[in-house]
Write a structure and sequence with these properties.
Blueprint lengths: L1 H13 L12 E7 L5 E7 L5 E4 L5 H12 L4 E10 L5 E10 L2 E7 L16 H6 L1 H9 L6 E8 L2 E12 L3 E10 L5 E2 L1
Antiparallel strand pairs: 1-2, 2-3, 4-5, 4-9, 4-10, 5-6, 7-8, 8-9
């Protein structure tokens, strides 16, 4: 009898009973306009607080599937990238490809099971990443900044051969970009 009274009180106070251990992947959408004017749909999980981005064309079912694959770390590992300023420990992220209901989606996540330290991306470097990094990447892709070998690193069960590119900036100091592809040069699925 007292158990039933407690449950009634819980329903009255809480408003509704939600199954424990599941948030139903409830989310809210929030558009973000980048410095270049591009609009990105951010998907925020209302319970966990995690944020991912999704193409504006994604349906609710697509977003649900994207959240599940992201949480379960599913997808095919494509590459690893790192960023550092003035010789600090690089901030790394793994790029992976996912099949979302027949649509190919590319995303990033923090590396796991690494054999290297992972730094942080400091808040004051965000303006550089938004405003300067795109033109830096154009120089890299055009071969106007020479690549140097960085070495082999392992993350997410994959060994990557990493190259690095650096450029000195008056306002930002030395910026270094790192990119590694799987050693066997074939995608690895997890």
């Amino acid at each position: 009898m007292s158990l039933a009274a407690c449950l009634v009180l819980l329903v009255v106070i809480g408003g509704q009973v939600v199954p424990l251990g599941s948030d139903g992947f409830d989310f809210e959408l929030a558009p973000l306009v980048t410095g270049s004017g591009e609009t990105i749909s951010l998907v925020k999980n209302e319970i966990r607080g995690s944020v991912i981005n999704a193409p504006p064309s994604y349906s609710e079912a697509d977003i649900y599937e994207l959240q599940q694959q992201n949480m379960l770390r599913e997808g095919t590992v494509k590459e690893i990238e790192g960023f550092s300023f003035n010789g600090k420990t690089p901030y790394w992220q793994v790029t992976y490809l996912s099949d979302i209901n027949g649509k190919l989606s590319e995303g990033t996540r923090a590396p796991t099971n690494t054999d290297f330290p992972n730094g942080i991306l400091e808040r004051n470097s965000i303006p550089f990443m938004i405003n300067e990094r795109p033109s830096f990447m154009v120089l890299v892709e055009a071969g106007q900044i020479a690549a140097k070998p960085y070495g082999l690193i392992t993350s997410d069960g994959v060994t990557f051969e990493v190259q690095q590119w650096s450029k000195q900036y008056a306002e930002w100091g030395l910026f270094t970009y790192y990119r590694g592809r799987p050693v066997d040069h074939s995608p690895t699925s997890h």
